[in-house]
Amino acid sequence: MGIFVLYFADSTKKVRKPKPWKHPQPITVVQLRQMRDEFWDTAPHYGGRKEIWDALRVASESEVALAQTIVESAGIIVSNADLTLCYDERGATFQSCAKYELPKYVLSEPTNLIQDS
Question: Whole-angstrom Cα distance, residue 101 to residue 112?
Fold first, then answer.
């Protein structure tokens, strides 16, 4: 499962994987999946458009080339290099754009992930 970041530099968008991170406590694959499912089930209730949340979910679960295509075609503006803060292009300014905040655990696996037996 690949999670990727979109950079805007000289009008050229470059996608790459996020940096490694560590969860406060070791967690299992099942626990991580439950946390992700909970986030994606509730994310649209925080504001923004459901289709942008859906696009972010698919992009976060895709390989590099597909993730880049999804983000570009959905009109998503990536603010943070690790995809934790995004906006949509519908507003004329950042103040009128919807804000989309993604926790690290939906973007990649922690370094202290426990493999289920």
Answer: 23
pTM of the model: 0.80
Instruction: Give the residue from 7, 1, 2 showing the smallest Cα distance to 72.
Output: 7
Q: Are 94 and 86 in contact (CB under 8 A)?
A: no
Please give the CATH number for the structural domain made up of 5-16+26-107. Answer: 1.20.225.20
The per-residue pLDDT for range 75-113, each reduced to its tens digit, is 888 777 677 888 887 754 555 678 999 899 999 999 999
Residue-range domain boundaries for the chain: 5-16+26-107
Phi-psi region of 25 (alpha: psi -120 to 50; beta: other; left: phi over 0): beta
